[in-house]
Amino acid sequence: MPTIQQQAARNLTKLRETRPLIHNITNFVVMNFTANILLAAGASPVMAHAENEVEEMVGFARALVLNIGTLTDDWVDAMVKAGKKATSLGVPIILDPVGAGATALRTNAAKRILAETKVSVVRGNASEILALAGAQTNTKGVDAADSVGQATDQAIRLATELGVPVAITGPQDLITDGKRVIRVNNGHALMSSITGTGCGATAIIGAFSGVDPDPVSAAATALAYYGLAGQRAAADANGPGSFMIRFLDALYNLPPEELERDARISE
Amino acid sequence: MPTIQQQAARNLTKLRETRPLIHNITNFVVMNFTANILLAAGASPVMAHAENEVEEMVGFARALVLNIGTLTDDWVDAMVKAGKKATSLGVPIILDPVGAGATALRTNAAKRILAETKVSVVRGNASEILALAGAQTNTKGVDAADSVGQATDQAIRLATELGVPVAITGPQDLITDGKRVIRVNNGHALMSSITGTGCGATAIIGAFSGVDPDPVSAAATALAYYGLAGQRAAADANGPGSFMIRFLDALYNLPPEELERDARISE
Amino acid sequence: MPTIQQQAARNLTKLRETRPLIHNITNFVVMNFTANILLAAGASPVMAHAENEVEEMVGFARALVLNIGTLTDDWVDAMVKAGKKATSLGVPIILDPVGAGATALRTNAAKRILAETKVSVVRGNASEILALAGAQTNTKGVDAADSVGQATDQAIRLATELGVPVAITGPQDLITDGKRVIRVNNGHALMSSITGTGCGATAIIGAFSGVDPDPVSAAATALAYYGLAGQRAAADANGPGSFMIRFLDALYNLPPEELERDARISE
C-alpha cells in the first residue's frame, strides 16, 4: 500500500493523464479562476447551471463541484438536481458551503444539499464548518473568523453525524471522516490575499476525487498539491497579483516527484 | 485637523488594520477583479445579490457598493432592497451608474437607486454623470465619451440637487458635494486599457467610506490611493496584462507614507 | 486588391483607430477575459444581457457576439432578441456555440440562433461544428474531442447549407463559406491551457467584423492576429498564468507590420 505522499504523486500523474471532466456549479466571482485552476492542474472543467441541462452534463463528469458563493434559490434547485443525478450515477460530489453561518439562505442551502444528495467531501473554512455543525461562529462574510484548531472537534463530530468527510482549510488543513484525522501543512499566507483560493481548493478536491475513489485520500492529497503550488508561487511573488499568476504556473508545472517529496501530510 | 494628504494615509492605515467588510452587488464582468482589488487594499469583500439574503448580509457591512454594469430588473430590486436596509442602518452606499445614458434601463435604474436609498457617493465617468444630470452626452456604451472638464458644472449642480457627493473619474478626477470641489491628479492612462478599473475605483471609495465618515474626504483619498497605485504599476508594465497584475501588487504594497507624500489632491 | 496578409494589417490598424463598440452576450466564465481581450486589441466592449435593453444597446454596436457557454432559457431569449435587432440593422453577428453536442439545450440554442437571426460567422471547435452539422462527435464538455481535419468536410457542407461562414479553431484554424477554404497556421499549444481562448477568438472575429465587411476575410485575419499574439506570448511564458498575462500584452503591442509579415494564412 502506498504512503499518502506516494498516493499524492500518483493522483497528480493520473489527473494529468486522464484529464477528467469536472462539472462545476459555482459562484460568479470565481468561475474564471476555478476553470483556470482546474485546467492548470490537468482537469477539464465545465460550468453549467441550467436546470434543463445539469443532469445531462453531470453524466459526462468524474466529479461534481457545488459552491454556494453567490447563490439564489434557482441555483440551489439546480445544484440539488445535479447532485441527485450525480448520487444515482456514483459521481462524487464536493460541496463548498461559502458563507454558511453568515446568512440563513447560505446555511440552509448547504444543509439542504447535504440532506438531499450524497456528498463525498465538504470543504470549508473553520467558520463555515462550525456553522454547519450548529456551533457558535464569528463569521460575518465569506472569510474565516475562526481557527482550524477551534473547529477540529466540531469537524470530527460533523463528519461522524453526516457520514461525510470534512475538510477545513486554513494555515493548517484538517481532513477527517470522523475516524481518520489528517493534517496538511503545505500552503502560504499569500493564498488568502486573493479571492477564490478556497473555492479553488474545493475544485481541486473534485479533480483528485475524479481519479482517487477514497474521499479522505483524495482531499488530503489534493490539498497538499494545492498548498505546495502556493508555496512555490509565493517564493518570488511581489504581492497578490503576481502570486495569482505564479500560482497557476506552479499548479501546471509541479512535478509529481516533488509533490511526493514535499507534501507535508500527517495522520 | 489633518491635511487631506495626511487623511489619505490615515484612511489606508485604518483600512488595513480594521479590514472592513464591503458588501458588493456588482456586475458579472468585474466581480473577480473587484474582490481582488478590495482584498489587495486591505478590505474584506463579499458578493451577495439574492433578494432573500441581501438585508442580512448588509447588516455586517461597513459599506454597500451598488454597480449596475450587467443589470436586470431583479438585480435592481435586490440593490434597492439592500440599499434601503443600508440606509436604515447608516451604512454608506456607493453607487456606480455603469452605462447610464446608454440605455433607458441603466439611466432609470441609477435614478431609482438615488431616489429610494440614501447614496453616500455616486462615482461615474463623465458621460454617466452627464446622463444622470439630464445633460447631453455622447455615450454609446460603458466607456466615457465626454471629458471631466465638460462635466464639472453638471456634477456640481447634480450634487447640489441630489444632496449626494459626486465623483467623476478620468485623466483628472473630480469630487464635489456641490460646495467643495476637489481634484485628484494621480492615475495613469493604462488604467483605461483594462476592464473594471472604474468599477474598482467605486469599490475602493466604498472601502475608504468604511473607515472615513466624511464622504468627500473618503472619495478623494480613495481615488488618490487608487491612482497612485496605478502610477506605480504602470512604471514597468509591458501592456494591459502586466499592468493589471502589477496594479494588484501596488495596491497591496503602497506604504501610507508614500501616499501622503505623492497624493496629488487639490481643493 | 490587397493580399490577405495586407488586409490583416489594415484591419488591425482600423480597429485601433476606430475602436468599434462590440456588444457581447456571453458566458459568466469568460466575461472579464473577453472584455480585456477586446480592449487590448483596440475595441470597446460592452456586456448587456437584459431583454429590456439589448435592442437599444445593439443599436450602438458594430458587431454582436453571442456565446452560449453558461446559457439558460432566458439568456437565449435575450440573444435571439438582440440578434433579430442586429439582423434588421445590418450589424454582423458572431456565434460561439460553446458545448454544442454536449447537451440538447446547447445544440438547440445554437440552432435556434442560426435559424432566427442572420449570423455572419459561427466559430467553434471541431466537436461543436460537427454537432451543428448533425455529424457524429465525441464531445463530452466544452473542450474539443475531435480534430479540425475530421471536421473540414462537415464545415464546408454546414457553411453551404446555412449560407453562414464557419470558422473552426484548433492547432490549425479553418475558415470557409462553402466555396473559399482558408487555413490559418498561427497559434500556440499554451492557448488551450487557459479558459476562454476560444471565446476570445470569437470576440476578436467580432471586432474585426466591425471594420471589415467581408466575414471570411474578417474571420481569417482576426484568427491570424489572435494566433500570432499567442505565439509572441508563449515565447517567454512559464505556464498558463504568465501566458495569459503576456497574451493580453501581445494583443495590445503587436504592430500591424509584424502581423502582415508573420500571418500564416493560406487559401
Automatic annotation (TrEMBL), chains A, B, C:
Top-level class of the enzyme under EC nomenclature: transferase
- What is the name of the protein in this document? Hydroxyethylthiazole kinase
**Residues that bind substrate:** 47, 196
Q: Which reaction does this enzyme catalyse, per its entry?
A: 5-(2-hydroxyethyl)-4-methylthiazole + ATP = 4-methyl-5-(2-phosphooxyethyl)-thiazole + ADP + H(+)
Primary role: Catalyzes the phosphorylation of the hydroxyl group of 4-methyl-5-beta-hydroxyethylthiazole (THZ).
A molecular function (GO) term? ATP binding
Query: Recorded E.C. number(s)?
Result: 2.7.1.50
Which Pfam family, any one, appears in the UniProt record?
Answer: HK
The domain of life is Bacteria
Q: Could you tell me the keywords of this UniProt record?
A: ATP-binding, Kinase, Magnesium, Metal-binding, Nucleotide-binding, Thiamine biosynthesis, Transferase
Q: Which GO terms describe its biological process?
A: thiamine biosynthetic process; thiamine diphosphate biosynthetic process
Which SUPFAM superfamilies does the UniProt record give? Ribokinase-like
Pathway linked to the protein: Cofactor biosynthesis; thiamine diphosphate biosynthesis; 4-methyl-5-(2-phosphoethyl)-thiazole from 5-(2-hydroxyethyl)-4-methylthiazole: step 1/1
Q: Which family does it belong to?
A: Belongs to the Thz kinase family.
Where, in this chain's numbering, is ATP bound?
123, 169
Q: Transferase: is it a keyword of this entry? A: yes
| Source organism | Trichlorobacter thiogenes
- State the needed cofactors, names only: Mg(2+)
